[in-house]
Design a protein that fits this description.
Blueprint: H1 3-19, E1 24-28, H2 39-48, E2 53-57, H3 69-76, E3 81-85, H4 96-112, E4 117-119, E5 135-138, H5 148-154, E6 161-164, H6 165-171, H7 179-186, E7 191-196, H8 219-222, E8 226-229, H9 236-249
Parallel strand pairs: 1-2, 1-8, 2-3, 3-4, 4-5, 5-6, 6-7, 7-8
Helix pairs in contact: 2-3
Length: about 260
């Protein structure tokens, strides 16, 4: 077998892998920030929903000091995939303290077996800060003034991408009317997973259970991806209803109900 033939076989195999990649659903622990639930209680409830994955949303770096890594690791071991969202209120700069925090985040990722840590690029002073972290980079919404060109300039070829459909949707109201399609096409081979919810009339990340029609324009884009729900739930029952709605709406998505 020649080298050229080997490359051709690999290309065909990769194509078939893409065709049969299963759609999987996970829920972010940040969805429950309005409820009085610990990180551990959120994980337990998400597991009860019968979904495939969980994303541990960190509010700040200090939260890592309050976690029992072994307990969290045991709690997530039943999921097919686990991801971490970096502290959403933290700006990472070129300081020794911030580098040490990034080391702690990476250690936490390794300890619990998460596949990636999601970062908002507008919170990271330089991509070089993430060189020792298994990181993915998320697209930002319009109010952050960080557009598709800023994203392309920020990331390097080796970094996976997380597409947030709400963030993309905020650009479609003016500057880039095709933003979701553009991002899914441009980064087709680099998408680690997708964050989704509704860009609602009151705020970003409203639940699909309040706006089921919003799935009509999204569900085909979500097929064959790992999906993380980022809806802001006002009750646990609302989360269960939402998971059922997605399972009924997206081709190939199966959950253990």
């Amino acid at each position: 077998v020649t080298l050229e033939t080997s490359f051709l076989i690999a290309k065909v195999e990769n194509s078939f892998e893409g065709l049969f990649h299963m759609t999987k659903l996970g829920v972010g622990t940040g969805c429950f920030y309005r409820l009085d639930m610990s990180q551990f209680e959120r994980i337990e409830y998400i597991e009860s929903l019968g979904v495939d994955g969980v994303e541990l949303t960190l509010s700040d770096g200090d939260e890592l000091d309050q976690m029992d890594y072994a307990r969290i690791s045991a709690a997530v071991e039943g999921f097919d995939f686990v991801t971490i969202h970096s502290p959403i209120r933290k700006k990472f700069k070129e300081t020794e303290a911030d580098r040490k925090m990034l080391d702690r985040i990476e250690l936490f990722r390794q300890e619990i077996g998460a596949e990636t840590v999601v970062f908002h690029p507008d919170n990271v002073e330089s991509i070089a800060l993430l060189e020792d972290v298994k990181a993915s980079i998320e697209n930002m919404q319009k109010r952050k003034s960080f557009d598709r060109h800023d994203l392309e300039n920020f990331i390097e070829e080796g970094y996976p991408v997380v597409i947030d459909t709400v963030h993309a949707d905020t650009w479609e109201e003016g500057s880039y009317p095709d933003e979701k399609n553009y991002l899914f096409s441009k980064y087709a081979g680099r998408i680690n997973h997708v964050h989704t919810s509704v860009n609602g009339p009151e705020e970003e990340h409203e639940p699909f259970s309040d706006h089921p029609e919003a799935l009509d324009g999204l569900k085909n884009l979500l097929v064959s991806h790992k999906i993380i729900l980022e809806s802001k739930f006002s009750s646990k029952d609302q989360a269960r209803k939402e998971v059922g709605l997605l399972a009924d709406s997206i081709d190939g998505l199966k959950i253990d109900r």
